[in-house]
Structures are given as structure tokens and as C-alpha cells.
Amino acid sequence: MAQYSKIEWTHSTLNLWSGCTKVHEGCDHCYAEALSHRWGNDVWGNDKPRKLTKSAPADLLHFQRTAAQAGKVYRVFVGSMMDIFEKPMPLIDTKGLEVMSEDKPVLTSHLRQRLFEQISQGVYPNLLFLFLTKRETNINKYIPEDWKVNPPSNVMFGASVVNQTTFDRVTENMKAVNGKKFLSIEPQLDFIKLGNLQGIDWIIQGGESGPRKRPFKIEWAYSMRDEAQSLGIPYFFKQIDKIQPVPEDLMIKQFPF
Ligand code: SF4
Fold first, then answer.
1. In this structure, are 125 and 166 located in the same domain?
2. Whole-structure pTM over 0.90, yes or no?
């Protein structure tokens, strides 16, 4: 298996751009923001531009070629340094200059649209795109019209959840989205009861890591594991905090497809 990402639940990670704006308490210790600042990129906040990832198109073609050669389907997480369903934002290049095309500014929405068009055209038959967002109400706003009725089979829409309040809101909002869907319950900050989870194909759960990590109770994991299993939903336990060892009976790494 080709593994281009340190994130265990995906083979590779794709960022069309880097930069974002915080949405809720799950973003408080956003590692992508910390990394961006360390790299000297001022791309966080509604008043800041996003930075173009120039290598993204070539990276994607490389992932597709590798997966095709192996005769496999590889998962591509979009994106670890951005939110694909963020509102359109201006773009800068590596020199900090505004990205232009035919004298017009290129926006993040143009990159998103181009990727969606390529997926519709079948350019990446060996890639399963995992579009993870904290802005799930924007999914139907920004996907191509025909995806609302007939979503591509190689796309999964994911939404982030951190506590019962976000879980209840997100699962309600995700009912309006067609297609394959998953929940990323990380960093989980409080107990969550899943209840009835119609239409969700995969659950990823994990606690927070890093120097400012907030506590994660192991009983939250056992409760969610049991609920997911009784609902027949593939369940992936990622981590407690990347320091504490994961008990044997929580080493569950199931995938939906
Ligand atoms: S949505 Fe994701 S990338 Fe954006 S600030 Fe929140 S955690 Fe960071």
C-alpha cells in the first residue's frame, strides 16, 4: 500500500491551498495554523489570502498513476491545511503575489471547481476523495449541480464533530447531502451519543494531541465503538492523544470501501 501521509486513515493528503478561518472549539489548537505560522505564512483569518499549493495538480496525477499501477483505489484526504468548502478567498503564490489569470484574480473557488470538474470527467478513477469540512452547510452550495442528485462514486463527504452539540447539528445538516458520508470525531472534547445515524458510512474517532491537548476519556471510545458496531458502521479509532498507548481492544481500524 502506498502511504504518502502520516494520517493513518488516508493514503495521501491533498491541499489545493493553505489557510483557513477558525469555525468552532475544534479549531482552537489547529495544527495547520500553527504549522503555517512556523513556515512564515500569514494565511489564517477572513481578512487574509490563502496560499496556492503549486504542486497539487502534479501530486494528484502521481497518486492516480501509482494507484492505477497497483490496481488499487487510494484514499485522498482533502485537505489537512485548508477547508475545501470554505467561501471563495483570494490566492497568493509563494512570492506573496496575487494569483492572476487573464488579468483576473484566481480565487480558491476556481481551484475547487476545477478539481470537481476533473472528478466528474473521470480523471481519477483510482482515487477516493475524502472531502472533510467544518462547513458542512456549504457542501450543497459549492458542489456541481448534478452531484446533488448523482454524486460521484469516488467522493466521500466528511464533516467534523467535537461534542454532542456539533454532532447533533452536523448530522442533521448532513442529511441534506447525497452520497457517501463520514464523520471525523476528532478532537473529541466531550461524551457523544451517536443515536440513530442514517446515511453515515464511516466514523473516525480520536482525542486531541499536542502540548495543549484537552482531555479525552477512554470510556468515550468504548461507548462509540460499541454503538458504531451495533449500527454496523465501520469504525476507526485513531488515537487517545498520540502519547498514551491505545488498548488492544480499541485497535480498530475499519474502512468503509
Ligand atoms: S476548519 Fe480545520 S483547518 Fe480550518 S481552522 Fe478549523 S481545524 Fe484548522
1. no
2. yes
Q: Which of 134, 168, 184 is the last residue of a domain?
A: 134
Q: What is the pLDDT of residue 61?
A: 97
Domain match, 129 and 170 both:
no
Confidence of residue 1 (pLDDT cuts 50, 70, 90): very low
Write the pLDDT tens digit of every residue in 47-73.
999 999 999 999 999 999 999 999 999
| Predicted confidence (pLDDT) per residue in 83-115, tens digit | 999 999 999 999 999 999 999 999 999 999 999
Residues 6 or more apart in contact with residue 91 via CB below 8 angstroms: 17, 49, 50, 51, 52, 98, 99, 105, 106, 107, 108, 111
Residues with CB under 6 A from ligand 1: 20, 22-23, 27, 30, 32-33, 83, 134
In a domain, 146, yes or no: no
Domain range for 72 is 1-134
* Residues 178 and 130 placed together within one structural domain of the fold: no
For ligand 1, atom 3, the nearest C-alpha belongs to: 82
Domain assignment present for 201 = yes
Please tell me the distance between residue 172's alpha carbon and the centre of ligand 1 in angstroms. Answer: 21
CA 69 to ligand 1 center in whole angstroms: 34
Question: Do residue 164 and residue 236 come from a single domain?
Answer: yes
